[in-house]
Amino acid sequence: MKGSAQLADSEEEHGLLAMPEISLVIAAMNEEEGIGECLERAKSAFEEHHIDGEIVVADNSTDRSPAIAVAAGARVVTPDRLGYSYACAVGIRHSRGKYIVLSDADGTYDIADLPRFLQPLRDGQADLVIGSRFGGGIRDGAMPWLHRYIGNPLLTWGLNLALGTRVSDAHCGIRAFTREAWDRMDLTFIAEDFCSEMLRQMAKNKARIQDMPVAYFQRRGRAKAGTLLHGWRCFRFLLWRIFLRVPI
Prior knowledge:
Layout: E1 22-28, H1 35-48, E2 53-59, H2 65-71, E3 75-77, H3 84-93, E4 99-103, H4 114-122, E5 128-132, H5 133-136, H6 145-163, E6 175-178, H7 179-183, H8 194-204, E7 209-213, H9 227-243
Parallel strand pairs: 1-2, 1-4, 2-3, 5-7
Antiparallel strand pairs: 4-6, 5-6
Helix pairs in contact: 6-9
């Protein structure tokens, strides 16, 4: 990844602070309707399951999301440019945990599921655990018809075909992975399509990948990307970067 002030080294990144077991990283932009409840659920999950964890929010909001996150005990970092994929990478760069969990701030995932995602990593059975909304149940109104029945299945099928993987929901927004697996990745293209590029590199690095059924709920607040635009970006990445191996 190129040129981010937020990717500069800091004292905490050199290990001068105690390293938690888990880093929950959330990329957010104008999610004040849902971020507070998401973070409170995360804190409750940490406490209930005795998890030594931190919460890092990579935030480019113009609303109250950063203030809500700070009040909930999260560490907020500000990426120097927009984009979900880039924000995820910046948040991970500022995290310190042995295991990293990515989730969203809009209430679409129940963060109480976090321990289930961690267990295969802790047991040494997986390097990457990807949520499966199709396996866990998509609630009414949570996913547009085009995404649910055409876009996501087609893109997942194409990625599995090209990469030799066997995931059922390649673009699910909740996933967990080891820091060791992340550190083996080349971040040059990660900002183009985070989910696809991460799967590509994990497959290339022979990472052990598991599906994890997860329920998917209707989001709180307005969606940031339109159905067609988001689908086109993912398809373009699949065609040019994955199949043709040409940088976009």
